[in-house]
Amino acid sequence: VQLQASGGGLVQPGGSLRLSCATSGRVSRIDNMGWYRQAPGKQRELVAVITTGGSTTYADSLKGRVTVSRDNAKNAMYLVMNRVKPEDTAVYFCTADILYYTDDGAPVALKAWGQGTLVTVSS
User: Fold this and answer.
1) Which residues pair with 44 in a beta bridge?
2) In three state form, how does the secondary structure of 40-76 look?
3) For residue 33, what are the contacts with CB-CB under 8 A and spacing of at least 6?
4) What are phi and psi for residue 38, nearest 5 degrees?
5) Does residue 122 contact residue 116 with C-beta atoms inside 8 Å?
6) pLDDT tens digit sequence for 13-52
């Protein structure tokens, strides 16, 4: 099971970004999916979480600027951030609570993390 985050890059202050998270490998079910970020010299922090049914939770500091969505048919998740600021510069990671079955039929539940995509907000 692998998660692949993409869409990072250089964004000008005040602009927008859209990140994507794709899932590959053996997946039977994905429950919560989420975005986290880690700025240089800081701890990793929650950005947003979305349930299978589409319920969302956002970091208080980002409410009103971010929107998380997912496509359950594609096992994919997206993040749109508007009015970006230099302090949004960070590596953005996606996560997913995944259930899959081994060849022996044993269930395995895990929290998978993507490798991260770097977002740099600068003029």
Assistant:
1) none
2) CCCCCEEEEEECCCCCEEECHHHCCCEEEEEECCCCE
3) 21, 49, 50, 70, 77, 94, 95, 96, 97
4) -135, 115
5) no
6) 999 999 999 999 889 999 999 999 999 999 999 999 999 9
